[in-house]
Amino acid sequence: MADAALSGVRVLDISTVLAAPVTATLLGDFGADVVKVEEPGKGDFTRATSSGYGGRSLQWLQEGRNKRSITLNLRSERGQDILRRLIPHFDVVITNYRPPTLKKWGIDPESMQKLHPQAVLLFVTGYGLTGPYSDRGAFDRIASAFSGLTYVSGEPERNPVRSGYAVIDFMAAYMAAYAVLTALYHRDVNGGTGQVIDLALYEAGFRASEDALLAYSVDGSVRERLGNRNPSIVPASDFDTADRRRISLHAGTDTLFRRLCAAMGTPDLATDRRFQSQMARVEHQDDLYAIIANWVSRFKADEVVELLTHHDIPASPIMSIADIAANAHYRERGTIVDVFDEEHGTVTMAAPLPHLNVTPGSIRTLGPPLGHSTDEILSKVLDYGQQELDELRIAGII
Fold first, then answer.
1. Which terminus of the chain is less hemmed in, N or C, by CB atoms within 10 Å?
2. Cα distance between residue 183 and residue 196, in whole Å
3. Each residue of 78-94: pLDDT tens digit?
4. Rounded Cα gap, residues 23 and 13, in angstroms
5. Interaxial angle between packed helices 140-147 and 167-188, expressed in degrees from 0 to 180 and rounded to the nearest 10
6. What mean pLDDT do residues 225-251 have?
7. In whole angstroms, what is the distance from residue 346 CA to residue 395 CA?
8. Among the options 169, 219, 243, 254, which is catalytic?
9. Over 90: is that where the pLDDT of 58 sits?
10. Is-catalytic flag, 169?
């Protein structure tokens, strides 16, 4: 891995569920040496669905890939002491425990900076390290609610709905990985020091709120649920097809709308006073969507997407995970890959993303058994002998 983009970067992952550990996974995909600290006998939350040896669930295979696992009882003083001794050996430390727990265990920002002033310290917490809610816990669902994302998701006149995936967790992981690399660049290229990265889980979702806050600050308008529609871009929505599937299309610019009218065989529709400008289409969108829905309903999903694509109109079937697994573009581009695992056989998972042409990411190992590297790390990094390791294991520290 000498030619990996992050070769030589050492990461200590002291986190669980889900944004913070995924941040470490993203760094590991591009060559960072990631050591994952887990609770003895239990391990990361994503192991929970496994009944096999070492807690290697399917989710853990992916989110624990390219990591080495050690066990350490952080509820014990001795375990906390070992952790504090490990911290100075790493470039990046990632955690997501609440501020009171961090303080109790002696791994709050101030304590860790004293231990290792050059470290990049990433704290991904529910509400951040500061503010009146900083002691509160949160998960993806709660962060989605607090960020405003849930409020605008769903159909009008119905209750809000959460996304079907842990979108906030993964958005926060991407943002956190970007922050880590920014801090490392500042330290290693610009001659800076280590620093604390304070990311609240909800902030990733809030940052995706487009101009909603700006609009509210100017005229008091509140973005509401519009289902599959966009409040200012028409037509852009989802439609039922003849084979009982759904497709999504976007023809929200004047040029794209003219192409859509041509594809539907109704070119004069583009000059209809109700639809001849973006503002007009927004005002008369119900009429327009009824016309488009009637046209789409005459075709099978693949047929209408092919026709729209032929006219250079962005469109796609609404894909299930089964559709994705069988899709030629996903396969040939390398968005998904097949990997052999001795326990689970051949599994298909997300590839390291994004694609870099000189230093691409790689899957070197899948999620390891719980504590697989405990003895190796403690002996090589902290010079523990076998007798001391045995004593720690008997005492439930590792």
1. N
2. 9
3. 999 999 999 999 999 99
4. 9
5. 90
6. 95
7. 38
8. 169
9. yes
10. yes
Task: In whole angstroms, give the CA distance from residue 126 to residue 146.
Answer: 10
Give Cα separations from 223 to 152, 220, 236 (angstroms).
7, 10, 17
How would you classify residue 62: left for phi > 0, otherwise alpha for psi between -120 and 50, otherwise beta? alpha
- Record the tokens describing residue 123, joined without a space: 């704290």
The pLDDT tens digits of the residues spanning 134-188 come to 999 999 999 999 999 999 999 999 999 999 999 999 999 999 999 999 999 999 9
- Residue in the structure block whose two tokens are 């001849």: 276
**Residue 2: pLDDT over 70:** no
Mean pLDDT of the chain: 96
